[in-house]
Amino acid sequence: MSFRDALLQALRHLRAHRLRSLLTLFGLVWGTASVIFMVAWGEGVTQMLELGFAKTGKNLGQFFAGRIGEDFTAAVDRRYLWYTQDDVDRLRRRARLPALIGAQTQEHLPLALGQRALDIDVRGMDPEAVAIRGVALASGRTLSQMDLSQHRRVVVLGHDVRQKLLGARGGIGAWVRIAGQPFQVVGVLARMGDQLGRDGDKIDDQAWVPITTFRVLWPRWWTDQPWVESILYRLRDRHLRLETEREMRAILAEGLGVRSDDTEAVLHWSSLELLSQLPLDQMRGVLFALASATLVIGGIGTLNLMLDSVHERRQEIGVRLAVGARRRDVTLHFFLETLCVVALGGLLGVALGLAGCALLASLDFPDLVPVPVLSWRIVALALAVMTAVGFGAGVVPAWRAAQVDPAMTLRME
Prior knowledge:
The chain has 14 helices and twelve strands. The chain is an alpha+beta fold. It has a six-stranded mixed β-barrel with strand order 3-4-9-6-8-7, surrounded by four helices. The chain has a two-stranded antiparallel sheet with strand order 2-10. The chain starts with a helix and ends with a helix. The longest helix is centred in the first third of the chain and has 37 residues. It has two domains: 183 residues, no CATH class; 198 residues, no CATH class. α1 crosses α2. The chain is elongated and about 105 Å long.
């Protein structure tokens, strides 16, 4: 029997038992669509988290100075520590693993234009820190080395700060006041949206000024050195995350005069470290298992349908065997018929799953709401599971059909 004949026979059988066939096909369609949708949704969650962390800076890590740990000194000597520009320069000379190293300071300060004023997160940045953040410009330019060397009073505004203070059309060339000091707007950042794992206000609500200007205008009372609030770096290779942290920690600890294993003195934060702690692989595995179980239930419905078909068509099978049909021909016929039923339900399920994912992806969700992410691998995975279910549901009915005794079936009537 050809595949075409098996398909026609399967369609006739489905038409003859409409309700049972509808329920069987529904299980297959829903199961296949679930595999596609849930695996695509799991990929969407992963990409959403990757993007949410990358908005603070791709492959970003940060070091903060803390205080000497209680395990390393007496409680009365647990002094607070801070970094200086010398620590940044030492890292740039000696650290081999990070791709880029930058410095930043920060403080909440009032930003005003005319009668409008905002309390915002003002960052003192150097060009390397700006590059590590990797935020695109909507207009203007970013901070330059010349801005730092000449202590220029220039500022780059985040998207939301510009909207709230200058309006949709205001921007480059405007003069604003930061804590009463005049600054000229030289750049506006593109909108970044919500971020994960940020070290303060989101970038859309920040203003960036040259770090040298920040130090001159807003010094710290505890030091007259060129202090640094935090040191940013970009990983050269994700697989060297721990090695990069250890190398930089040792150099910074040497400059602070503390032990490299004092994690209270040399504080570290990394977006990749946070991502590695999330059970994303386990989540995807659970989603796939749940969706596959739904498809298997649909396969059990198909198995039941085909076993009923074998029982109802025993006389037909007996006649075929009596007139010379081989048992393997009967086995192949019912196996192909089962595969046709599974293929019909599976292909309809693929279409439903793709349509559902495309529909959700087209909707305007907030930045941190996951949407399904489709790829050819997901469709191939769904088809592979569907094929396995079809094979499993086809073997038993085909074997049962081949065991029919022609003599017994011919005497049934």
